[in-house]
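Exercise 7b. C-alpha cells:
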C-alpha cells in the first residue's frame, strides 16, 4: 500500500520517502500544514479559532489538513458530548516535537528573509482614489436620463 501524501493523494511506490528528511517533508509539505502546527503549539484550538488565525484558508482545506495531520499522528481531535458539539484540536507528543523544527525555520526566516510590509485583507485603493470623479450613484438618478451624469458632476471630473 502506498504512503499518504498530505494534499496530493498517495505517493507512488517508486517515490516513497527513503530518508528522514523526505519522510518529515511528506507530512508537513501540504499547504497550511506548518501554519496549523504553529498555531497549535500555543495550545488547544477549536476549528473556528484556527480558521480565524489562518486568514485565507477555506473550511474545506482546513478540514482536510486537520484530518491528514490527525491520521499522521501529529495532532489529536477531541470531541465533547455537548450541545452544540465542541471539538478541540491539540498536538500529540509527536506533533509537539515539531515545535523545534518550526522554531528553527522561524529564526532562519527572521535572519535571512527581508521584511515585507504586512498584507491585509483590504482591497487596494484604485489609482484615482481621492480625485474628483463622476459620482455613479448620482449619475444614475440624473434628471438628464438614466446613466447620464449631472452637469455639475461632469464639470467637477474635468477639473
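Sequence design result:
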Amino acid at each position: 500500500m502506498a504512503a499518504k501524501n498530505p494534499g496530493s493523494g498517495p505517493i507512488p511506490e517508486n517515490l516513497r520517502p527513503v530518508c528522514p528528511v523526505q519522510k518529515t517533508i511528506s507530512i508537513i509539505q501540504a499547504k497550511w500544514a506548518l501554519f496549523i502546527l504553529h498555531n497549535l503549539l500555543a495550545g488547544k484550538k477549536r476549528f473556528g479559532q484556527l480558521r480565524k488565525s489562518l486568514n485565507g484558508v477555506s473550511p474545506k482545506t482546513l478540514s482536510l489538513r486537520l484530518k491528514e495531520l490527525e491520521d499522521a499522528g501529529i495532532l489529536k481531535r477531541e470531541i465533547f458530548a455537548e450541545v452544540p458539539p465542541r471539538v478541540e484540536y491539540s498536538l500529540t507528543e509527536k506533533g509537539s516535537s515539531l515545535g523545534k523544527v518550526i522554531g528553527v525555520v522561524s529564526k532562519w526566516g527572521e535572519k535571512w528573509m527581508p521584511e515585507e510590509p504586512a498584507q491585509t485583507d483590504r482591497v487596494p485603493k484604485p489609482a484615482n482614489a481621492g480625485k474628483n470623479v463622476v459620482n455613479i450613484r448620482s449619475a444614475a438618478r440624473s434628471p438628464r436620463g438614466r446613466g447620464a451624469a449631472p452637469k455639475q458632476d461632469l464639470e467637477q471630473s474635468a477639473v
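Instructor comment: Helices lie at 20-28, 33-40, 47-53, 59-71, 93-96, 98-112, 136-140, 151-158. Residues 98-112 form the longest helix (15 residues).
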